[in-house]
Structure to design on (603 residues):
């Protein structure tokens, strides 16, 4: 109960953290860190900025061209037709050039963003494969998928914001310069609206980050619900849980909808509508100023046209930038979630620096090994045993006794903090991880099949393994009996998880997958528990042959599969309570004897 309360408190702390605003200082740090992933593609962004600068210059020159035409030719009323054509042609060419510059600017920035997105997604994917099993125990798969897909996609929109911001800054600066050179007093009047805009930006960035964090969290929960419902669809339908699952999904979906409504309200109030209001007020103020000036002196129509156009050029980029703030905040929140994974220190257990050992004999020794998943409650307590080369060690015990935990620490899926594990009388940490994976073959109770065909699932896409080795491995475990009957045989298609094969057939392929690498040590984690009796009989002969010349650690559910083991270890509550051969343990009339009698009674 205490552990449950502790977990609840952690979840509450996590949830409350995701509903808080991100401070401006933290937002700057997040942006700076994410931008590092764009550095390899900086040429795209820099060239795009050059085009943006030229684009902003043309936006100044085109109104000035019309101003000159209006004030020096159009007001005379007898302008020659060829002059009108010349100005029209110049304006047309300027507009075409403007479109070309805009295209290249947007194209280059988008390409840089796409390549940055690909880079971040690849870095994130690689990082996930360095994290230890504990991370995946604590983090729902749907949440991870959401961060690798949805959050990284938001990051691309986030990068596009900077194109809008930088292009907008060029436009605003050049528009103000143009306004100032046209009429300095009116320019300062327009600039007076800028503090109001900056205040709105500050408030929006402060308030909306909380809204977007909450929205992202709800989207992640939605993905978790969807992932669980798809993976557990058989159980859901079998136990008629459709309505409960639908209700839970609907509740989560409604929460996500409410979060999006809050985002829409915030954006509607503080983004383009505010800019449009400020623009209208600025036009009123400017026209009022020109009206007052016109009472005492002549004001040219071209000046008024050019100035009002510059006011539009001044505020329109602001409108685009304010609209982009929603993507900016979404991107900052998404980036913070991505960085949360990249900063995670739940690494897979590390080997000693300079580890270069080679497993030759296959001797295994546990010396007083203790292990805990949470650092508090011991799952293994002072485990010691020796498996000599070529021996088979059986491990039995009730559910939760620690059987699989022995495999987890020996395979280096989890780090143990007390005791020592040795292979060939050498610390297991002195072997490279590649050597451990190559020389220790693991067969789990639930075998996973990848998209592809039979052959690729046996060789696991290792092209160094020949077709002959694949055939020999399948024949060795007698998987060839059903493979040869399939359309396409070794090239028969395998769908997700190997769903079209029986559990026994998948397990035979898993055995073949292990045998083809010719491991020195064989680890069987209840490898025959989910196999029917007929299939088990089929692979027993293969198992005996697999174990020849190999040290075998076999977690057994069916005690009949380890009767011939040189040594059987009986676990209870993480401790070794009995150890000996099958006959020796039966003679003790202890835990093993009770397990054996229980299974005999079931049979």
């Amino acid at each position: 109960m205490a552990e449950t309360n502790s977990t609840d408190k952690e979840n509450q702390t996590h949830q409350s953290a995701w509903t808080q605003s991100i401070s401006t200082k933290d937002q700057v740090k997040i942006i700076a860190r994410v931008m590092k992933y764009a550095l390899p593609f900086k040429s795209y962004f820099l060239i795009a900025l050059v085009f943006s600068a030229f684009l902003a210059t043309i936006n100044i020159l085109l109104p000035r061209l019309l101003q000159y035409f209006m004030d020096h030719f159009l007001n005379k009323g007898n302008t020659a037709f060829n002059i009108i054509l010349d100005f029209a042609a110049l304006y047309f060419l300027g507009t075409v050039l403007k479109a070309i510059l805009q295209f290249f600017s947007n194209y280059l920035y988008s390409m840089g963003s796409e390549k940055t997105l690909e880079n971040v997604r690849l870095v994130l994917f690689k990082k996930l494969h360095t994290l230890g099993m504990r991370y995946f125990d604590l983090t729902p798969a749907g949440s991870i998928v959401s961060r690798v897909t949805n959050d990284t996609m938001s990051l691309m929109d986030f990068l596009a914001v900077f194109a809008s911001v930088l292009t907008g800054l060029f436009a605003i600066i050049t528009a103000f310069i143009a306004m100032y050179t046209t009429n300095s007093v009116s320019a300062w009047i327009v600039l007076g609206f800028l503090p109001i805009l900056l205040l709105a930006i500050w408030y929006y960035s402060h308030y909306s980050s909380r809204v977007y964090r909450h929205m992202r969290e709800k989207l992640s929960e939605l993905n978790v619900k969807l992932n669980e419902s798809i993976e557990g669809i058989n159980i859901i339908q079998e136990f008629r849980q459709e309505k409960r699952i639908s209700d839970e999904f609907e509740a989560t979906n409604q929460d996500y909808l409410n979060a999006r409504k809050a985002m829409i309200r915030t954006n509607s109030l503080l983004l383009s509508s505010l800019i449009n209001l400020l623009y209208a007020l600025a036009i009123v103020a400017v026209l009022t100023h020109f009206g007052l000036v016109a009472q005492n002196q002549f004001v040219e129509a071209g000046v008024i046209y050019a100035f009002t156009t510059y006011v539009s050029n001044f505020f329109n980029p602001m409108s685009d930038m304010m609209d982009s703030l929603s993507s900016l905040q979404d991107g900052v929140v998404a980036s913070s979630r991505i960085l949360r994974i990249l900063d995670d220190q739940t690494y897979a257990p590390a080997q000693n620096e300079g580890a270069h050992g080679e497993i030759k004999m296959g001797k295994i020794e546990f010396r007083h090994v203790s292990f805990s998943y949470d650092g508090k409650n011991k799952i293994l307590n002072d485990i010691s045993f020796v498996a000599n080369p070529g021996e088979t060690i059986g491990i039995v015990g009730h559910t939760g006794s620690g059987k699989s935990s022995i495999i987890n620490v020996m395979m280096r899926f989890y780090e143990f903090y007390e005791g020592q594990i040795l292979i060939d009388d050498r610390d297991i940490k002195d072997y490279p991880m590649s050597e451990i994976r190559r020389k220790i073959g693991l067969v789990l109770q639930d075998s996973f099949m990848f998209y592809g065909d039979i052959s690729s699932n046996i060789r696991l896409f290792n092209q160094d393994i020949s077709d002959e080795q694949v055939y020999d491995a399948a024949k060795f475990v007698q998987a060839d009996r059903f493979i040869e009957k399939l359309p396409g045989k070794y090239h028969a298609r395998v769908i997700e998880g190997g769903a079209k094969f029986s559990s026994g057939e998948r397990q035979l392929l898993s055995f073949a997958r292990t045998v083809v690498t010719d491991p020195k040590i064989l680890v069987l984690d209840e490898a025959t528990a989910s196999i029917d009796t007929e299939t088990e009989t089929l692979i027993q002969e293969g198992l005996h042959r697999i174990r020849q010349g190999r040290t075998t650690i076999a977690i057994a559910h069916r005690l009949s599969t380890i009767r011939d083991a040189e040594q059987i270890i009986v676990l209870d509550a993480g401790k070794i309570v009995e150890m000996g051969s099958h006959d020796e343990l039966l003679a003790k009339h202890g835990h093993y004897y009770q397990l054996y009698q229980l299974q005999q009674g079931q049979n």
Notes: The chain is about 65% helix and 10% strand. Residues 7 and 138 are 10 Å apart (CA to CA). Confidence is low (pLDDT under 50) at residues 1-19.
